[in-house]
Amino acid sequence: MPKIDKPKILVVNDDANSLFALTSLLAQWAEQEAYEVLAARSGQEALRQVLMHDFAVILLDVNMPGMDGFETAEAIHARARSADIPIIFITAFLADELDRLKAYQHGAVDFLFTPVIPQVLYAKIAVFVALAMKNEELKKQARQLSQRTTELTATNQRLTREIEERKSMERQNHAKDEFLAMLGHELRNPLSAISSAASLIGLPGVSVDGVQRAKKIIQRQSQHLGRIVDDLLDLSRAMSGKILLNRVPLDLSKLVATALETCRATGRSTDYDLVQDLDAGWIDGDPTRLEQITSNLLDNALKYTPPGGRVEVRTWTENDDVVLSVRDTGVGIAAELLPHVFDVFVQGSSTLDRSQGGLGIGLSLVRRLAELHGGGVEAESAGENRGSTFTLRMPRIEHQVAPLAPPVSSLSEHGKPRVLLIEDNDDGREMMTMMLGGYGYDVTAAADGLLGLDAARDHQPDLALVDIGLPGIDGYEVARRLRADPATRDIKLIALTGYGLAEDLRRVMEAGFDRHLVKPVDIDQLMEVIDTCAQVPVKQ
Question: Model pTM?
Answer without folding.
Answer: 0.39
